Every structure is written in structure tokens, then in C-alpha cells.
């Protein structure tokens, strides 16, 4: 029995209610509904406006530094071929989002939302942040456009991520430590949603991943799709054909959706998402919502979540603060159920190995988040033929992780 017949296209969602199959939607307080509808309309207008697209391209080029290179990781490729049976070992490419201004893919989405906030005449921007990367990107663009910026951050994360807290303050943002719940990312997001309801007239909520109520998951995906659009074009120029596989790490899932979406209907392209398995999915200490969670509702949408037997949201664990979210974007939940994307998970230990290998072989210190995906490249590449073209989304640089990794390796700075 086929429960989910493959649709004609995997790229048409969401429907008018914001659903991807049974996932997504907008489960919000009545008071938020007018704001959400306003935003949906403003985004639809902007999408149809050529001047909005021109602004995205212009700031994308001159401020963010796009396009990011598609880079042939030659030494990593050779290293993995040496471990593979004869004639095997994929050719590995990095999509270098770590070279963007502020050091990750987050800025692609923030640029889009801030330009939208300007169109809507909203002078005050709020955001949630976990590791602080989205907060820094938001504070950066608010500085650039002279907008007031308030960032909600769990008190535990404020402690753990002191350099990024300082960065946001340098950029003129106000950082509010959130004391509720587990005092981490999910609580920061709750607090931001509360702020939005109470400051309806002047405030724009800039969400950092493909989560939240409709239209956020689709809008953030669209802004991040520049990653996949460029990759397609660059691979055609370099190799004269499409890649054979794509792979990206998943926290909420925005860098992955950005790379994947333009390829979803190229059915010969294999697609892999990599969740954080922490100490292992069996241990209970992980952030693998698809691999180890079940469907529920959080932050305005239905998706796979980590929860306990009573349905309370469980704590996520990952070595990487950027993957430490107990949910996943609803479009990923749908792609998982449709079987279009294969979801794997990587442990903290596997991630650290990949982190070291990439630094030593390619002279690129990756963020711990994409190091999760890299560890699965190390497993998958040797099983593929030598002509197989594999693209890893290198979503961010590792500078922010240096103090933490040094501590794990027993070094003092
Ligand atoms: C925030 C972050 C992630 C996780 O977010 P997604 O929405 O899943 O992309 C991944 N990589 C880096 C470098 C990040 O900063």
C-alpha cells in the first residue's frame, strides 16, 4: 500500500493554508493572526516587485559577498578515495557559505526579512537566537539600515556564547536574556512571539530558520534558495551537468532547504539531511527530531518534535549550539514522509573527527554544524563511484567554535 504517492512536483508547497501535507500551518493566538496575514500579503507583494529582487541582488553582491564559490575539495576527495575500493570515491565540492559576511548562511535570510521590514515601515526588529549566529546577522543588518534591534536569547545561551553577545551589543542591539523554561532557544522563540503580540504596530519578527507559522517556513526557504540556485549554475559551468548528491546539516533546516529546494524535482539527485545525534539517538541526549521524535505542534506549526511521553517538549542536546533545536522545519517533515530526502544523523564524536579532517586537509575550519554533514560525507563518498559529484553545504566557519573545541581537546587558550 502506498500511503504517500509521489506528487508531480515537490516544489509547489505550501498550500494556501501554509501546509506541506499534514505539516506546517499556522497555529497561533488570535491576536497574532492579523500580523501574520499582513506579513503574508507584504511578502507576496515584494516577491512580485522587481525592485525588491534588485535590492536583494545588489546588497547580496556588495554587502554579503555573493555568489559564494563552489569549491572542489581535492585533498578530501583523494583522502577518501584512498580508503575506497578501486574506482570508487565521489568527487566532493563545498558550497562555501562560510565566506558570507558574518560567517554563515544566516545572513541570506536576514537580508530578505530586513528589506521586507523596511517596505512595511517597521522600525523595530526582534529576533530569537540560540548560538547567536542569527542574532549577530540580524544586529548587523539592523545597524546597516538604522533599525532598532532586540534579540531574545536563553539565559543559558547568553552564558555559553559570550563573544556573540558582545558582538550583538557592539552592533547596537539589545540582548534580552530569557529566564523561562530551559532558558535556551525554544524559550527565546516563545518570548519573541510574546513581544510581537504586544508590539503589533511597529515591530517585525525576523525568524532565523524555516520554522514558525506560515509564511515563515516558505519565506525563509525562498531567501535561502539562492544557495541552491547558484550551486546548480556553478556545477553546470564546472562539470557540465547537475550534481549526483547534495548534503547539508539540519538544525531548523534553513541552510538545507536553501540548497535542496531548487533540486527537488531533479529526481536523479540524491539528497541527504543530517541531524545532530549528540551522544547517540539511543542515549536520549540528541537533537534529531526526525530520527528520534514524533509529530506535534510548536512555535505555530505542526512538525516532528522531541517530546516526552506527556507531549512536553524535551531538551535537545548537541555539541553544536546551532543545531540545538527540538523541532525541524515542516517542509523537511513532509519531504521525510514523502521519501524525497534521506535524513541521517551524526554524533558529537563523529562531528569532531570531521572538524579536524577538514581543517587539516583543506585549510578550512568549518563550523561544528556543517561538520555534522561532513562526517556523513566521509561515510557516503567512499561508497559512490569516482564520477559521482557530491555537494556539501559548508554553512558556516568555525571561528566561533574555537574556544569550545579547544576545551574539548584539553587545550587552554
Ligand atoms: C544556525 C546554523 C545552522 C543551523 O540552522 P539551519 O536553519 O538548520 O540551517 C547551521 N549551520 C550554521 C553555520 C549555523 O549558524
Name a few traits of the molecule.
binds pyridoxal-5'-phosphate, Rossmann fold, alpha/beta, 413 residues, six-stranded mixed sheet, 16 helices, four-stranded parallel sheet
Describe this structure as you would to a colleague.
This protein is an alpha/beta fold and 413 residues long. The strands form four sheets. A six-stranded mixed beta sheet has the order 3-4-14-9-10-13, sandwiched between helices. It has a four-stranded parallel beta sheet with strand order 7-6-5-8, sandwiched between helices. It has a two-stranded antiparallel ribbon with strand order 1-2. Helix 2 packs across helix 4, helix 4 packs across helix 9 and helix 10 packs across helix 11. The protein starts with 18 loop residues before the first strand and ends in a 5-residue tail after the last helix. The structure holds pyridoxal-5'-phosphate. The site of pyridoxal-5'-phosphate has 18 residues, from helix 11 and helix 15.
Amino acid at each position: 500500500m502506498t500511503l504517500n504517492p509521489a506528487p508531480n512536483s515537490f516544489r509547489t508547497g505550501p498550500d494556501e493554508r501554509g501546509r506541506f501535507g499534514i505539516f506546517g500551518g499556522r497555529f497561533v493566538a488570535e491576536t497574532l493572526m492579523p500580523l501574520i496575514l499582513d506579513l503574508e500579503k507584504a511578502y507576496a507583494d515584494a516577491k512580485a516587485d522587481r525592485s525588491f529582487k534588485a535590492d536583494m541582488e545588489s546588497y547580496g553582491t556588495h554587502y554579503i559577498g555573493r555568489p559564494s564559490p563552489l569549491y572542489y575539495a581535492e585533498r578530501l576527495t583523494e583522502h577518501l578515495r584512498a580508503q575506497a575500493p578501486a574506482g570508487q570515491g565521489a568527487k566532493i565540492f563545498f558550497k562555501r557559505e562560510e565566506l558570507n559576511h558574518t560567517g554563515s548562511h544566516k545572513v541570506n535570510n536576514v537580508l530578505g526579512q530586513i528589506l521586507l521590514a523596511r517596505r512595511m515601515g517597521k522600525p523595530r526588529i526582534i529576533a530569537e537566537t540560540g548560538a547567536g549566529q542569527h542574532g549577530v546577522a540580524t544586529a548587523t543588518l539592523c545597524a546597516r539600515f538604522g533599525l532598532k534591534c532586540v534579540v531574545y536569547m536563553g539565559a543559558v545561551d547568553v552564558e555559553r556564547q559570550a563573544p556573540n553577545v558582545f558582538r550583538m551589543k557592539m552592533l547596537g542591539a539589545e540582548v534580552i536574556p530569557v529566564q523561562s523554561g530551559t532558558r535556551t532557544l525554544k524559550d527565546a522563540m516563545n518570548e519573541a512571539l510574546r513581544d510581537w503580540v504586544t508590539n503589533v504596530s511597529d515591530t517585525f519578527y525576523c525568524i532565523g530558520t524555516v520554522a514558525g507559522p506560515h509564511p515563515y517556513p516558505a519565506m525563509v526557504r525562498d531567501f535561502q534558495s539562492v544557495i541552491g540556485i547558484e550551486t546548480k549554475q556553478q556545477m553546470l559551468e564546472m562539470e557540465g551537468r547537475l550534481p549526483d548528491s547534495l548534503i547539508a546539516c539540519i538544525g531548523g533546516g534553513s541552510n538545507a532547504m536553501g540548497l535542496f529546494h531548487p533540486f527537488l524535482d531533479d529526481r536523479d539527485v540524491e539528497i541527504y539531511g543530517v541531524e545532530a545525534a549528540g551522544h547517540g539517538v539511543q542515549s536520549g541526549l540528541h537533537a534529531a527530531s526526525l530520527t528520534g521524535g514524533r509529530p506535534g505542534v510548536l512555535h505555530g506549526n505542526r512538525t516532528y518534535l522531541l517530546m516526552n511521553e506527556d507531549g512536553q517538549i524535551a531538551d535537545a542536546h548537541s555539541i553544536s549550539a546551532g543545531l540545538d533545536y527540538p523541532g525541524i522545519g515542516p517542509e523537511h517533515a513532509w519531504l521525510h514522509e514523502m521519501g524525497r530526502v534521506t535524513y541521517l544523523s551524526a554524533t558529537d564524536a563523529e562531528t569532531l573527527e570531521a572538524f579536524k579532517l577538514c581543517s587539516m586537509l583543506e585549510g578550512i575550519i568549518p563550523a561544528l554544524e556543517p561538520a555534522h554533514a561532513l562526517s556523513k560525507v566521509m561515510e557516503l563518498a567512499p561508497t559512490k563511484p569516482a564520477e559521482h559529484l557530491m555537494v556539501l553545504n559548508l554553512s558556516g566557519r568555525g571561528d566561533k567554535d574555537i574556544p569550545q573545541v579547544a576545551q574539548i581537546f584539553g587545550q587552554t587558550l
